[in-house]
Amino acid sequence: MRDSEVLVTHHKALMELSHNTSFIEMPRPRKLAALMELCTRLLGVKRASVWLFPPERDRITCERLHDKELPGCNSCVAQNGAEFNLFRSDHPEYFRAITEERVIAVDDAHNDFRTRSFDRDYLSVQNIHSMLDAPIFDGEQLSGVVCLESGVRRDWSVPDISLAAAIADTISLMNTHEAWLRSKRALEYVSRYDSLTGLANIDSLRDRLNHLVRKIKRRGTGSLALLWIDVDRLKTINDGLGPQAGDQVIADIGQRLQEIQLAGKDFLARIGGDEFALVIRNYTLPSFLDEVIREIQGRIRQSIRISDQDLNVSASMGICHFPGDCHEPEELLRGAEAAMYHAKRQGGDRSTLFDSEIQMTARSRFALESELRETLKTDGLDVFYQPIMDRTGTQLESAEALVRWQHPQRGRLSPIEFLDVARSAGLMYELGACVLKSVCADWRDAKDRNILMSTVSVNLSAEQVLVPELPELVKEICQNQDMPVSALQFEVTEDSIQGDFSVIGRVLEQLVEAGAELAIDDFGTGYSSLSRLKSLPFSRIKIDRSFINNLPDDENDCAITLSIIGLARGLGLSVVAEGVESEAHEAWLFEKGCDYLQGYRYSKPLPYSEFINRYLPGGSGS
Description:
Elements: H1 3-18, H2 21-24, H3 28-43, E1 47-52, E2 59-67, E3 85-87, H4 92-100, E4 104-106, H5 119-126, E5 130-138, E6 141-150, H6 158-192, H7 202-219, E7 224-231, H8 234-241, H9 243-259, E8 265-272, E9 275-281, H10 286-301, E10 304-306, E11 309-311, E12 315-322, H11 329-345, E13 351-353, H12 356-377, E14 382-390, E15 396-407, E16 411-413, H13 419-424, H14 428-448, E17 455-459, H15 462-465, H16 470-480, E18 488-493, H17 501-513, E19 517-523, H18 530-534, E20 540-543, H19 555-571, E21 574-577, H20 583-591, E22 596-597, E23 606-607, H21 608-615
Parallel strand pairs: 12-13, 15-17, 17-18, 18-19, 19-20, 20-21, 21-22
Antiparallel strand pairs: 1-2, 1-6, 2-3, 4-5, 5-6, 7-9, 7-12, 8-9, 10-11, 14-15, 14-22, 14-23, 15-16
Helix pairs in contact: 1-3, 1-6, 3-6, 8-9, 11-12, 14-16
């Protein structure tokens, strides 16, 4: 038979094997065994094997071996039971050749300079005279070798070499497909599971609830109870012992919930920073759920050992049923969450069943969230401005931007009426961007009218300062309105800088590098440490209004305010007093050296047009 005919016959046999459905569905070891058996049968060689480079790349390790003279032999272990390895240091010429030449066709393996180093321990022992090796790849990287070994001296033909290379290419394609599957599984894990606890996340929970609800509706029978579990006082643990301690608490509670054996326990997920959800299927009668709640509360209340301390934690729980309390999976989630918040408002460490009163609150909250989402899509929130005056209370120094929402049915809403909804819905970053866009647009409008807008202070939430992309977003929004970043001052509360310090520090430093200034808002009410404060690029402290209300009559408030002013002086920071409402406030703060004053004594927050008319040179009221 001519070489061309042999080549066609070989490749036809390989294609029939590799494209067979049963082969495609085989696990990798069986695929390799089938390919090696094909080699020995078609080429009449003694042995065929697959070798892999480990990460160190200092050796090749046998993954699969087929020996025609030993039926059923696929062993790749040496006689002592260890893996069969060939080391680069023992066979440098072979490793150089397979790396550079790729295909090695050796007629006389005992004397060829590339393979003779194998003679002492391998070739003579196995009675091998000729070798044909072809490279296996993983992407562009050489990852292994297909090795064909003949027990008689052999001149390798073009069809022989072609088949060996085709077999190696088939294994290379297997490697590429397996790497893709691993990446797909890793991506699915990242997107569907929580990295801290290993539990499913909120997206996985939604998918499970959708499946179960559809099943119950289709069959007309069955029930679900969703338990929303929120760990009480986790923020206090984070503030007191650090976020690592908080993570340990969450991981420990997640493990405890996972270990609980309950009839009907169907699905467990971590759905937020300190929140878990448990789906109970069919076993949803009140008497049984009472037992479930007692079991969960008891497990969570068991002390947790952290940093040589025993921590005692508790949880607030909300329970919602399907059917009965709701009709759709999303309503089930919202109902359980609303019941949990009701339990938390009652003092925590308790559970609440979803009912009609909570249902009205939840529906109102859900509707408000949906309306807020739509409003943010069109940048539909308003910004009011409250002046910040010099220490005499007579000259405008800057202004604070404060968000408002002109709701079409509910009228003008203050932040206290919708910020909590935005926070629980994960909308704070989008809301902050909306406010900044409005501020920049107002600044540009003032510039176009030849009015010099004062520096504007914009509040940043904890959710915003944890996003590394925030500085770039700020620069982009300012650039779109031809506004310098230096016209902005960002205010963050003490509690907002309690997260990942490496991320927060970089975000705040990049904002300052872009030209903005930073202020600590509501100082004295949070849990920040001086070491953290002094290491961040703040230039201003704002004293919370709760310390200003009773000046100068309350000795404790006087002492606290004086200490904050002294601390600011020591750190080289300016001071703003919030909540200045009376002449007595103003006079006392002026005497004690407070730099700037803000409050209703000067103005309530004003719409943009009223603010510039009253306070900015060039406005009609100047």
